[in-house]
Write a structure and sequence with these properties.
Helix content: over 70%
Structural class: mainly alpha
Radius of gyration: 18 Å
Number of domains: 1
Distance between the termini: 46 Å
Oligomer: single chain
Number of strands: 0
Amino acid sequence: MTVAFHVLVWLAVAVELTCCVGFAVLRPAIDRLHFAGAATVLGPALVAAAICCREGLFTTNGLNAVATVLLLALLGGALSIATARAIRLSDRGTLESSQAERERGA
């Protein structure tokens, strides 16, 4: 169980570092948003899995970890959508799709 805990924690650290590097390297804000969204969901989920592996799922710590990850996933996704809409509105002045986007099905 200790090995699984350490593997999950180190995997979470690797995911978060990858997301940070991707966020720092990419220039367009909409591309950075993808890495920020991944950092909000993947890393915390792995940490919660590690906590549940060590403490047990049906303990206070395990349930708190799961609840935190669920809130991060829900609220992080909502924040990503709101940010993407704000970026589109800032760049194009409207949220409506262009004729070219409608033709290609985007």
